[in-house]
Specification:
The protein has 198 residues and is an alpha+beta fold. Helices cover 20% and strands 29% of the residues.
């Protein structure tokens, strides 16, 4: 499910907040403050991931209230003092994993194995909001040829891309995809683009 969150009422910003287990609420909130290494993103599109369902309905959130949303895109509207790669107006999407970059596995570049990680939309406030503050290392600048709608698919497409890359690619190989949901269909497109035989 994809939702456009460009909603403003009486000059107030809103986010979809999971107030407690099984309770969602559209809530007004103040503009998020950004740290020195963060960017403020005006969210244009945000997805609902299968991993969000237990966070809403099965006491799966790390804390309440929480604003979910780790599959989103938008435009940079402000940058922290230490941000050099992004400027106001840049179209970006989110890579939500926030590794500590200090532990032994992070030092080896194995960020997905970090035991001290944070995660946008799960362990910190996410993109189901009009504005969200995220670390610059979680931003990916979209080329001009990629729309904001397409950019919101960046995170889910990496779920299918990662195992293909880890397996050494799929050129001229037969690929089996189990499940034809959003990630399965995106994985199909990835495999085709990378030259799968069938």
């Amino acid at each position: 499910m994809w939702v456009s969150l460009r909603v403003k009422t009486m000059n107030m910003n809103h986010h979809v907040e999971v107030v407690e287990n099984q309770v969602l609420q559209l809530t007004a909130y103040d503009m998020p403050e950004i740290g020195a290494d963060e960017v403020l993103v005006e969210v244009y599109y945000s997805g609902l991931c299968g991993s969000d369902v237990p966070r809403v309905f099965d006491k799966g959130a790390h804390f309440y209230p929480i604003t979910l949303g780790h599959e989103f895109s938008g435009k940079v509207v402000a940058v922290g003092q230490g941000v050099e790669k992004y400027t106001e107006g840049d179209s970006v999407c989110c890579a939500p994993l926030v590794p500590c970059q200090e532990c032994d596995v992070c030092q080896k570049g194995l960020y997905s194995l970090c035991k001290h990680y944070s995660f946008v939309g799960s362990r910190r406030q996410g993109g189901n909001a009009h504005y969200v503050a995220i670390p610059q290392k979680c931003c990916f600048k979209l080329p001009n040829t990629v729309s904001l709608v397409e950019g919101a698919f960046f995170e889910p497409i990496t779920v299918g891309l990662h195992p293909i890359v880890m397996a050494g690619g799929c050129k001229d190989k037969h690929v089996v995809i189990v499940g034809a949901g959003t990630i399965g269909l995106l994985t199909l497109q990835v495999a085709k683009a990378l030259g799968a035989a069938q």
